[in-house]
Amino acid sequence: MKINITIYPKFLFLLILTYSISSCKRYSNEETVMPIEEKNTITKLEVHTILNLKVNLANYSEPNKYSISIPDYYQANTTEYNKGQIDLKYGKLNCVAKEKTIVVELESALTGYTHLAKEEVSIIKESNPNLLTVEDIKKDLKTNDSQQEPIYYEDANSIIYGEEIQVICFGYDSVLKSYLVYQAEITGYGEDLTPKERLNLAIHMLKNGKNIFKKEYKNTPFNSWEQYVANTSTAEINFITKPYSNINKEIKAFLNCNENVSIPNSSANLYRVNLAMNETYLNFLDAIKSKNVINFNLPDAIHENFESTFFDYETNNKYTLNQIENVDVVKISSAEYETESAKLICHIEYQGKNFYIISKDVSQFTKDFYIKMFNYYSKNKTLGIPS
Predict the structure, then answer these.
(1) Looking at residues 298-320, what average pLDDT do you find?
(2) How far, in Å, are 64, 69, 84, 121, 154 from residue 178 at the CA level?
(3) Of 8, 82, 323, 347, which is most buried with the most CB atoms under 10 A?
(4) Cα 229–chain centre separation
């Protein structure tokens, strides 16, 4: 039986209009359903590839106590525990009876402490360099029902294991006669990762563990956003870039002149400015370059909007400028309050309209990362890298 369906032009128009509006919502309540990934193994090739990725290191040390190498965008905090203050055990290496145990908590300036993973290094005095083995550590890996924890990878001095994904990597410092034990576990937002992403992050943490023992290394700057993406875990890149995923919608459809939206989980905002505001900002940059800020005239009509968008204008402040492609690094020093701050200001032009991503509280640890990230977005209107 043949069924004839007639769609009248007016109904068709309404149908298309309804679909168009629903597909262009500013905020969507729909959840993205990800396909279930069964990725519960790690290959030697994956480990070899990630362990050899580019990373710049920095030394973190205290004379006669410890010396470790950590990623140069990491911060560290040290706590010393006296005998009986810490219940920590790795195989036959038990800290309870030790006079002192030093624990260095590590924090990525990109993702923050425990946002994806918790990482720390324990420095434990021990005269026997052969006391700790992976086999002894494995004997302690039991679940609540006395079953063996899953083990995804192991070698002579490290192991990746557990339903929650943990990493242990250790070595012996013969000069200080101490064991250095790196331990990491996936926490916070990391618990929502797919199995593949979790294991990828675990191998990157293993790389951090292996690197703490390095004494000699050569640091070279990252030359592009693409290089940062290629050498950073998938989880970290997604954690950082996800808050920026709605920028295209704001630029193309929603943001009106002199409006702004905050970018979630970041210190950045997206602004759209009118031509007068844009011209005033460019003139101010020229005044910084010519060291003539004191004579700069900020029009009364836009004074308030200018300061709420870019920064406070005070003739007594000292402003310095470093322009890197589409990103302006503006450093502001206040003699009156003895403070210093810096902002990254990235210009984005779309169909003759002017937008700015402005990030405050710029950290020395992450400045280059965000400069390259913002420049890439400004040129490509995406943070994704073509495969």
Answers:
(1) 91
(2) 11, 16, 18, 12, 22
(3) 347
(4) 11
Number of residues in the chain: 387
Check pLDDT > 80 for residue 305.
yes
348: tokens are 């984005």
Let me know: does 310 contact 281? Beta carbons within 8 Å: yes
CB of 201 closer than 8 Å to CB of 192:
no
Q: Which residues contact 248 (CB under 8 A, 6 or more apart)?
A: 381, 382
Residue bearing tokens 């939206």: 261
The band of 53, judged by pLDDT with boundaries at 50, 70 and 90, is very high
Burial label for 21, CB within 10 Å (0-12, 13-18, 19+), is exposed
Both tokens assigned to 130: 């052969």
Count of other CB atoms within 10 angstroms of residue 352: 6
Query: Do the Cβ atoms of 202 and 167 come closer than 8 Å?
Result: yes
Tokens of 61: 């040390």
Token code pair at residue 179: 């064991």
Q: Which two tokens stand for residue 188?
A: 């916070």
Backbone Cα Rg of the chain: 26
Could you tell me which of 90, 122, 93, 126 has the C-alpha nearest to residue 106?
122
Instruction: Tell me if 39 sits within 8 A of 199, measured CB to CB.
Output: yes
- According to the 3-state scheme, what is the secondary structure of the chain? CCCCCCCCHHHHHHHHHHHHHHCCCCCCCCCCCCCCCCCCCCCHHHHHHHHCCCCCEEEEEECCCEEEEEECCEEEEEEEEECCCCCCEECCEECCCCCEEEEEEEEECCCCCCCCEEEEEEEEECCCCCCCCHHHHHHCCECCCCCECCEEEEECCEEEECCCCEEEEEEEECCCCEEEEEEEEECHHHHHCCHHHHHHHHHHHHHHHHHCCCCCCCCCCCCCHHHHHHCCCHHHHHHHHHHHCCHHHHHHHHCCCCEEEECCCCCEEEEEECHHHHHHHHHHHHHHHCCCHHHCCCCHHHHHHHHHHCCCCCCCCEEEEEEECCEEEEEEEECCCCEEEEEEEEEEEECCEEEEEEECCCCCCCHHHHHHHHHHHHHHCCCCCCC
pLDDT digit string, tens, across residues 206-258: 999 999 999 988 999 999 999 999 999 999 999 999 999 889 999 998 999 99
Do the Cβ atoms of 273 and 258 come closer than 8 Å? yes
